[in-house]
Design brief:
There is one protein chain. By secondary structure, the chain is α+β, with helices and mostly antiparallel strands. It is about 35% helix and about 20% strand. It is built from 20 helices and 22 strands. The longest helix is centred in the first third of the chain and has 20 residues, at about 135-155. The chain is globular, with a radius of gyration of 24 Å. About 55% of the residues are buried.
Length: about 650
């Protein structure tokens, strides 16, 4: 396709291609990326497309054609390898600078570390403590920077992110003074990027705010708590939002497509492209680019070793395990963080999407595609939080448990290779291949900015403007109103198909309306319209607000290509309740089959892959062994 090589502006033929693909959308005169775009997009064009609630995302096939359309004489400016937070951030940053951008991700957007985070957008209280006690300016600078980025992430995706108060229990007066001073310093360092002021609460006030908090700990009575504020997010949906925003900005983003080898210029030995395999179709093709950015997270070393098998290792992987418990473990709107447990580790309990997420461990691990939590790590978290709660902590209450790999980075150029950084590292240790790794979710935007700056320098690229992402809102965020759920509740109904095939109306209750508003932002009405007009208003799982309409919407508008894509990244059911996700799986496959025209064989394969994926989440039902303090109790009907 002739127009496929232009990623910055899609011409008339592109309009035809996208209209043909999206004839199923039933939108009223959707505005396509091609509209009035004759010579490249300005940043105002990009912002207008992102803000437009009728905008149609280019189809996956269209994106693949755009990648295939690059040539040696007409290459992309930047090809990004990796669709996590950093990779999608790089694609968005580069595209919004007017560069021609492609991105490929071996699995799905946010399928790795970026969907398995702590869900916090934070500056790093522990780093601030180290900065003062070790007189470490580097750590202090890290906190300054992260606190600045924290505010930007929340402002750029207000539907997916919010401020969360976190309570630190104190069982002696020295702790009260110590944490009060420390957290006031945290406020001071945040400066104008402060979310809310920290404050002290008495023991009585603390128990009123957090009813399950123990009055005694380690044979000491509670003296009070210090509450401070950090941010919280729906990490995978934010990542998918970044991918879709990058697509609207002009980047060709393609999930389920992996780099199998790199293409080098014979004369200069510079990387000039990559051979890519579409893992859904098996098709292989070459995409040419002036610069390749390696943003593969924990797997960035394996990408580097494709070029140089002797490349020094950059990644020191660390495992972080989290568990999900019922909502009664923590009140809505208040987290609990213990900076130092008996063995010196940090543990927390945070309300998240109607449940409680608790963690975390920090231990050495091997790099695998689907990391699984060990039972002893789950038991450690249960034991640690039980010391601070007045309720019985039970293994059978674990609804889901998962492990994520943190890619702690070592700079291959550093003389001291023992220096492992919590900050990010950008390097070009092979011409044409820029690697960005390390860092954390909170600073993904500035990491992407640094990587794009390095790519521009490496490839002598000519962007039309500087970095614009500091104030560039994610799709669904522009104009978001927290009260918008009331419009959904008042103006829409959920049309549900009964088992007999009859379609009956149902109320768009406030829990569903709030979920849609916060998951999709200003685009929530499009999901509600599908629920109302297409008879897809039924909940996917009892007790959860996820609707059948979301499966159809995500297949059409969010590059949802598999059942696992949906249960893990488009909705968070796999992370919230493994067993509920398993029960919803057959219906999810059925809806996706209708959207993607799957045959019976593919449907059976999707069901099998979905169940295999869920087995890596160690809920009480599929825990491997039951030893120690917390034993599994068989629950009838579980």
């Amino acid at each position: 396709m002739a127009t496929a090589t232009r990623l910055r502006g899609f011409g008339a033929a592109a309009m035809v291609a996208v209209v043909g693909t999206y004839g199923v959308m039933k939108l009223r005169d959707p505005i396509l990326i091609a509209e009035n775009d004759k010579g490249g997009s300005t940043i105002m064009d990009v912002k207008r497309r992102i803000a437009d609630t009728n905008m149609v995302i280019p189809s996956r096939q269209f994106q693949e054609n755009a990648l295939m359309g690059s040539t040696i004489k007409n290459p992309l400016d930047v090809l990004v390898v990796g669709g996590g937070a950093t990779g999608c951030g790089v694609a968005l940053d580069a595209a919004s600078r007017g560069l021609r951008v492609g991105l490929v991700e071996r699995e799905d957007f946010s399928s790795g570390t970026s969907s398995r985070s702590t869900k916090l957008i934070h500056g790093g209280v522990r780093y601030l403590e180290k900065a003062f006690f070790n007189f470490d300016y580097g750590q202090l600078k890290l906190v300054f920077h992260a606190l600045e980025e924290r505010k930007q992430v929340i402002q750029n995706a207000p539907h997916l992110c919010h401020a969360l108060p976190c309570m630190t229990p104190c069982f002696d007066w020295f702790d009260v003074v110590y944490y009060w001073i420390g957290l006031k310093m945290y406020d001071l360092v945040a400066g104008r990027k402060l979310l809310h002021l920290s404050r002290y609460y008495s023991a009585k006030e603390s128990v009123e705010l957090f009813p399950t908090l123990a009055n005694k700990g380690n044979d000491k009575s509670l003296k009070g708590t210090v509450v401070y504020y950090d941010g919280q997010m729906n990490d995978a949906r934010l990542n998918v939002g970044l991918a879709c925003t990058a697509a609207l900005a002009g980047a060709a983003v393609l999930n389920h497509a992996e780099v199998v080898s790199f293409v080098k210029d014979e004369a200069s030995e510079r990387i000039i492209g990559a051979k890519i395999r579409d893992n859904l179709s098996g098709k292989e093709f070459v995409t040419y680019a002036k610069v390749v950015v390696n943003a593969a997270g924990p797997f960035c070393d394996s990408v580097r070793k494709m070029v140089d098998k002797d490349a020094p290792t950059m990644i020191c992987p660390s495992s972080g395990v989290h568990i999900v418990l019922p909502d009664y473990y923590s009140p809505e709107g208040m987290g609990l963080i213990v900076p130092k447990t008996k063995d010196g580790r940090v543990v927390f309990m945070l309300p998240w999407l109607g449940r409680t997420v608790a963690g975390t461990t920090d231990s050495n691990t091997e790099i695998t595609m689907l990391p699984e939590p060990h039972e002893d790590e789950i038991q450690f978290i249960l034991d640690a939080i039980s010391d601070y709660l007045n309720v019985k902590v039970r293994r059978e209450d674990v609804l889901s448990a998962w492990s994520g790999i943190r890619p702690l980075a070592m700079d291959p150029r550093a003389k001291n290779t023992e220096s492992i950084s919590r900050d990010h590292v950008v390097c070009e240790d092979y011409p044409g291949l820029v690697t960005i790794t390390g860092g954390k979710w909170t600073t993904y935007r500035s990491m992407a900015e640094d990587a794009v700056d390095a790519a521009i320098k490496s490839g002598k690229l000519t962007p039309t403007n500087g970095c614009m992402t500091q104030n560039l809102q994610i799709v669904g965020g522009d104009g978001f109103d927290p009260a918008s759920f009331t419009v959904l509740a008042q103006q829409y109904v959920r049309m549900k198909k009964t088992y007999g095939g009859k379609v009956v109306p149902g109320v768009m209750d406030s829990s569903v309306a709030k979920h849609l508003a916060h998951a999709y932002g200003t685009l929530a009405e499009r999901v509600a319209t599908i629920a109302q007009d297409e008879g897809l208003g039924k909940r996917l799982a009892h007790g959860y607000p996820y609707l059948e309409a979301e499966v159809a919407y995500c297949a059409r508008q969010e590059y949802c290509e598999s059942a696992v894509d949906f249960i893990a990244r488009r909705c968070r059911l796999a992370f919230l309740d493994t067993d509920a996700a398993g029960r919803a799986l057959p219906r999810i496959v059925q809806i996706l089959a209708a959207e993607h025209k799957w045959d019976k064989s593919r449907q059976k394969q999707e069901l099998q892959k979905g169940n295999e994926f869920l087995e890596t989440f160690k809920s009480s039902k599929n825990a491997q062994f039951h030893d120690g303090k917390h034993t599994k109790v068989e629950v009838e009907g579980a």
